[in-house]
C-alpha cells in the first residue's frame, strides 16, 4: 500500500507521484525505524471477519487488511492521510499527519 501510494501519479487518487528511487529511499527509512510484523493465518481470519461484519467492498478491502493486521498485533493507532476510510473501525484510533 505504501509503495502504491508513493509511486502513484499525483493526478491519481491519493498519489504522491514519487519516482522509484524516492519511494525506495522512503521504504528504507521505514525499514530502519519500524518493526515489520508478519502476515499470518490469524491476520487473514481477522480480515475475513472484518469485511463480513462491516460489509466492506471494493478498494476498501485493502484498508481492512491494515486494520486486521493491527488488531492481530495489538496496534491501536494508525497514522494516515485517509482518515475517512478507517472511521468504521472502532478498534483503532486514526491520526492524520498534520495532527501529530
Task: Map the helices and strands.
Elements lengths: L1 H6 L12 H14 L7 H13 L6 H13 L4 E3 L13 E3 L5
Helix pairs in contact: 3-4
Number of strands: 2
Helix amount: 40-55%
Average pLDDT works out at 94
Radius of gyration, in angstroms, nearest whole number: 14 Å
Strand order of the largest sheet: 1-2
What order do the helices and strands follow? HHHHEE
Q: How much beta, percentage-wise?
A: 5-15%
Largest sheet: 2 strands, parallel
Distance between the termini: 21 Å
* Poorly predicted spans: none
What would the principal axes of the Cα set say about the shape?
globular
Question: Which class of secondary structure composition applies to the elements?
Answer: mainly alpha
- The helix count comes to 4
Compact overview of the structure:
With 100 residues, this protein is mostly helical. The chain has helices at residues 2-7, 20-33, 41-53, 60-72, and strands at 77-79, 93-95. It is 46% helix and 6% strand.
Task: Describe what you observe in this structure.
By secondary structure, this protein is mainly α. The protein is 46% helix and 6% strand. The chain has four helices and two strands; from the N terminus they run ααααββ. It has helices spanning 2-7, 20-33, 41-53, 60-72, and strands spanning 77-79, 93-95. Strands 1-2 form a two-stranded parallel sheet. Helix 3 crosses helix 4. The protein is globular, with a radius of gyration of 14 Å.
